[in-house]
Amino acid sequence: MTAVDAGGGAAVLPTGARPAAARPAEARPSAARSAAAEPHDVVVVGSGIVGLGAALAAADRGLSVLVVDRSAAIGGSTVRNFGHLCLTPQSGEARRHAIAARALWLRLARDAGFWVSERGTLVAARHDDELALLDELAAARTEHVLGDRPEIEPLDERALRALAPVAPGTTLGGALLPYDLQVDPRKAADAIRRHLESRGVRFLTRTSAGSVRSGRVETSRGPVDAGTVVVATNHDLDQLLPDLAERSELQRCGLDMLRVRAELARPLVAPLLTGWSLIRYSAFAGTAAADDVRSRLHAERPDLAALDLNQMYTQLPDGSVVVGDSHVTGAAISPFQDERASVAFLDEFRALFGAEPVVAERWQGVYASGRDEFVVDEVEPGVLVTVVATGIGMTTGLGLAEHVVGSHLDGGRDAALAASRPSSLLTGSRP
Ligand SMILES: Cc1cc2nc3c(=O)[nH]c(=O)nc-3n(C[C@H](O)[C@H](O)[C@H](O)COP(=O)(O)OP(=O)(O)OC[C@H]3O[C@@H](n4cnc5c(N)ncnc54)[C@H](O)[C@@H]3O)c2cc1C
After folding, report:
1. Is residue 422 part of a domain?
2. What sign for the dihedral angle of Cα 214, 217, 222, 224?
3. Which pLDDT value is given to residue 29?
4. Could you give the CA distance from residue 66 to residue 77 in angstroms, rounded to a whole number?
5. Ligand 1 pocket list (CB less than 6 A)
6. Pocket test for ligand 1, best of 234, 311, 337, 376 (most atoms within 8 A of CB)
7. Is the pLDDT confidence value at 189 over 70?
């Protein structure tokens, strides 16, 4: 973890290695006061992936940047997810942001030195209608935006089993989406933060933003003057800008997640999606075949449909597997996780992999869920809102931030901020 030092520069404090006399720099009143007192070209509220992307867009343009976050460490959605950068299953604006984000992820992984896997996404199909859906999207995706390979490569049962430890006889085959990426979300955000600090971006933690207006953010450490303000607060937009959140029909989506260890037949070389994912992400869900898949899955497994399951898996570099996820949406999410979701995750894991999972960790994640996939606005001159309002912020967030913040800083008014439309301006079908 790194922090603003007393002199206002970037200081590197290795995690856990705290000299007895030292306190985290942002805990030193003088350091925090200094960071809060100085004006910055850009002040970003929120240090998740969207806020980091906004800071990157500003730093790339040579501007001074302060990132304010009320937490002591990056701990929101950005560390609680699968680390699956699933660009192929996106459509519309989400696809454009995802393609832009892909290049930024690859650049950041190199510059900031964190793990990224370029092995794509695997889809395990367990029914003919799922194969038909994959074929339909493959036939429609003829453009070569990312390289010479098709975006969706069919796999027969044997080929899928060579890449994923699925038990014999459980699948009919599936597909490889070769351009998708994977990161370890627990490591990537901190690495990006350290990288940005090395480039002069300052982070002010344990500091709440109470209000934003043109040129100023009021924080729990006092006012901070800013040329441009970026709000990247995810679902907590409803606390900072409640009217915009209401207009955007913003709610919270709560998800249950597990990390398990298991004796798998072979490593899972890439994130693995199932039929439940095919009725969720917009490019899959927009196919004609999706109706058949949805009707069948809901009829066969109303218990899993009731959990709003997205049965998917990613294997972390240490060999453990992230398992999820269920979805429940509302103004507030109960902190008390219903064990039925975990039981279902573990049953489905056993059935697909033929292996016994041992739970290492359980957690709940929350993300913004809105009418549209993105809430983008300029609520006052120079006060930009960038919220991913569905569960694809790791895939799209860096691209969204570059698109909205970068083009604003370049002097152009972003198309997404056109005056005729008040809010939630980048639309797409919801996953
Ligand atoms: C369980 C789960 C699985 C997911 N899986 C994937 C996946 O595999 N692929 C994918 O693309 N997406 C996935 N997502 C979605 C993705 O993680 C999110 O869309 C993304 O991380 C949102 O990033 P963010 O920066 O907007 O929010 P966050 O990471 O939540 O950051 C927001 C920050 O704002 C701060 N903040 C809020 N209000 C204030 C305030 N008033 N003052 C100061 N600070 C404030 C918070 O402390 C927080 O640090 C998943 C999400 C969850 C929960």
Report:
1. no
2. negative
3. 57
4. 21
5. 45-51, 68-71, 76-78, 80-84, 86, 208-209, 232-234, 236, 239-240, 255, 257, 325, 365-367, 388, 391-395, 397
6. 234
7. yes
Whole-number Å distance between alpha carbons of 297 and 275: 8
pLDDT at residue 261 in the model:
98
Residue located nearest, by CA, to atom 14 of ligand 1: 391
Q: Nearest residue CA, atom 26 of ligand 1?
A: 234
Ligand 1 atom nearest residue 367's Cα: 53
Summarize pLDDT for 7-46 with one digit per residue, the tens. Answer: 222 222 222 223 333 344 444 556 666 677 789 999 999 9
**Structure confidence at residue 411 (pLDDT):** 85
What pLDDT band is residue 410 in, cutting at 50, 70 and 90?
Answer: very high
Mutate to test the pocket of ligand 1, among 328, 363, 367, 426 (most ligand atoms within 8 A of CB): 367
pLDDT score for 18: 31
Q: Which residues contact 225 (CB under 8 A, 6 or more apart)?
A: 39, 40, 215, 216
How many whole angstroms separate alpha carbon 27 and alpha carbon 31?
Answer: 8
Residues 325, 362 within the same domain: yes
Q: Are 209 and 385 in contact (CB under 8 A)?
A: no
CA-derived radius of gyration, the chain: 22
Q: Domain ends where: 369, 390, 406? A: 369
Please give the residue range of the domain that contains residue 140: 121-179+251-369
pLDDT band at 385 (very low <50, low <70, confident <90, very high): very high
- Report how far residue 428's alpha carbon sits from residue 413's, in angstroms, rounded to the nearest whole number: 21
Q: What's 349's domain CATH number?
A: 3.30.9.10
Rounded-to-integer distance, Cα 10 and Cα 55, Å: 15
Task: Give the tens place of pLDDT for each residue, 290-314.
Answer: 999 999 999 999 999 999 999 999 9
